[in-house]
Amino acid sequence: MSTCRVHPPGPRPDDGLLARARALPTSILSDALARTGGVTGVLPVPGGRWPRVAGPALTVRTRPGDNLVVHRALDLAAPGDVLVVDGGGALDRAVLGEIMARYAAARGLAALVVDGAVRDVEGLAAGTLPVFARGVTHVGPYKDGPGEVGGPVQAGGTVVRAGDVVVGDADGVVVVPHERAAEVLADGEGLLRAEEAVFADIAAGTLDRSWVTAALTEVRVTAP
Asked: Cis link prior to 25 (omega < 30° from 0)?
């Protein structure tokens, strides 16, 4: 019998904060985090078309290619959680597929984020639960353990802790540290307003591009 270490639940952000997070693209949040916090290489499964999602992280560390503790995490998850699986980035075996995604949706999870491989892509893409993964393979997992639920993990080069705010959209996944969430969201909302002003200037033909030449020393090359 394998060991599964289970940590206490992380903090839970209020609904208003999560609504604000869902209103911000991951690109804006990444900029608000000084272009850190991105879960690099973990993207929506091919064909998946879901609205932007935000929720508190429920973290899982599993032996690469094994999903026993991922199953246990689904049983422990609370509605609204984003399950973040540290599968070591391994792509030789899928650690979840359509059956687990359907079960997660029935339990009210907000999304699944896997630094590893998944399978049953057509079923995942057609489902209601957003799924983000590093890769795809039809080869199934072991179910031997060991693993850990609720402890700090890494996904795509970013540390994720239980209760951190995880936001996902078509560009990928960003992790906002829970103790900085209000600050980062406020900064992101300011960046979004500035971006919308740029869009308006583009449409009006009044966009100031002088910063480009100001940042360069331009040397003109003459024809021989």
From this structure: no
Helices (H) and strands (E) in the chain, counts: 7, 12
Dig out the tokens for 100 from the structure.
């687990």
Cβ–Cβ under 8 Å, residues 120 and 146: no
Listed in sequence order, the residues at least 6 apart from 110 whose beta carbon sits closer than 8 Å to its beta carbon are 53, 54, 55, 80, 81, 82, 129, 130
Identify the bridge partners of residue 117 per DSSP, sorted by sequence position: 94, 135
Q: Which tens digit of pLDDT belongs to each residue from 51-107? A: 999 999 999 999 999 999 999 999 999 999 999 999 999 999 999 999 999 999 999
C-beta of residue 17 within 8 angstroms of C-beta of residue 44: no
Question: 44-47 long-range contacts, Cβ below 8 Å, gap at least 24?
Answer: 44/130, 44/131, 44/132, 44/168, 44/170, 44/172, 45/118, 45/121, 45/124, 45/125, 45/131, 45/132, 45/133, 45/136, 46/121, 46/125, 46/136, 47/121, 47/122, 47/125, 47/126
| Single-letter residue type at 178 | H
User: Angle at the Cα of 169 (from 88 to 81), degrees rounded to 5?
Assistant: 65
The 10 Å CB-count burial string (b at 16+, else e) for 120-130 is bbeebbebebb
